[in-house]
Every structure is written in structure tokens, then in C-alpha cells.
Specification:
The protein has 142 residues and is of the alpha+beta class. The chain has 2 helices and 8 strands; from the N terminus they run βαββββββαβ. The longest helix is centred in the N-terminal third of the chain and has 12 residues.
């Protein structure tokens, strides 16, 4: 009978994504084009985030880029549809720009500075996902 050998796997628990709030008056497709040019990525419209709220279905547009590094994923999600909000506690935010970077290769301060350089963006906020208690936040975390 063979002896059972246990192997301890080291799993990095910092596989969280960075969530940035963007204030912009531009429509989602124009903002995604500006982000594509600035960061040399390829945000493309994919299936929207759909939520059910008080017997109504809410859809929030979503653009995603997964063509680059397999570990680096960019998502741009609209925070409003009509008068309803995806993250209700962040009503001043128009878009949520999520960067899933488990290797921590991207410098967040550089990304925020680059976003602030774009004319179509009024403001950028780094959002702490642990500080926000919103039931819809689960749709952002991979």
C-alpha cells in the first residue's frame, strides 16, 4: 500500500480586481473607443449585465477586453440605465472600469493618471470593493 503524500499549494489570495469609477458625459461606445486608443486594448461590446429589480429587468451595457494577456482583463460597465443605478451607493459615477490583474503588473496610479488625461473623462475614483456594501457588487467580482 502506497503512502499518501500531501502537497501544499501556495495560492495567491490577492486575485482581486481594481475597480475605478469614471465620471463622463460621453456614451459608452465613445468612452470605450477612447480607452482603446489610450491603453491599446480592444474593448468590445459583450452581453450586458442584467439585473432583476422590483419585477423589472435592468440592463447595463458592458464592454470587455480579454484578447491581451490571459491574466489581464478589462471591463467597462455602465453604472446607470435610465434613472436606475448598478451600484446605488455610487450615483455620481457614470461608468465602472474594472481591471482584473492577478499578477499586479499594472500600476494603478499610472492608469488613473492616464484616465485623467482623457478629455472625455471628468473624474476618476479608485473604489474599494471591501468598503462598499452593495448587493450588485457580486456581479463585478470574478
Amino acid at each position: 500500500m502506497q503512502k499518501i503524500k500531501r502537497i501544499q499549494l501556495n495560492i495567491n489570495q490577492n486575485n482581486e480586481s481594481v475597480i475605478l469609477g469614471i465620471v463622463s458625459a460621453e456614451p459608452d461606445y465613445k468612452l470605450s473607443l477612447a480607452l482603446n486608443k489610450k491603453f491599446r486594448i480592444s474593448l468590445k461590446s459583450i452581453s450586458p449585465v442584467t439585473l432583476h429589480d422590483n419585477n423589472s429587468e435592468l440592463t447595463f451595457s458592458r464592454f470587455s477586453d480579454i484578447t491581451g494577456s490571459p491574466d489581464l482583463i478589462y471591463d467597462l460597465i455602465s453604472n446607470r440605465t435610465g434613472k436606475k443605478f448598478f451600484l446605488k451607493k455610487l450615483k455620481n459615477i457614470d461608468y465602472i472600469f474594472q481591471i482584473f490583474d492577478p499578477g499586479n503588473d499594472a500600476d494603478i496610479n499610472d492608469i488613473i493618471s492616464a484616465l485623467r488625461e482623457l478629455d472625455c473623462i471628468t473624474a476618476v475614483f479608485n473604489i474599494d470593493s471591501k468598503a462598499i456594501k452593495d448587493k450588485h457588487l457580486q456581479y463585478l467580482i470574478h
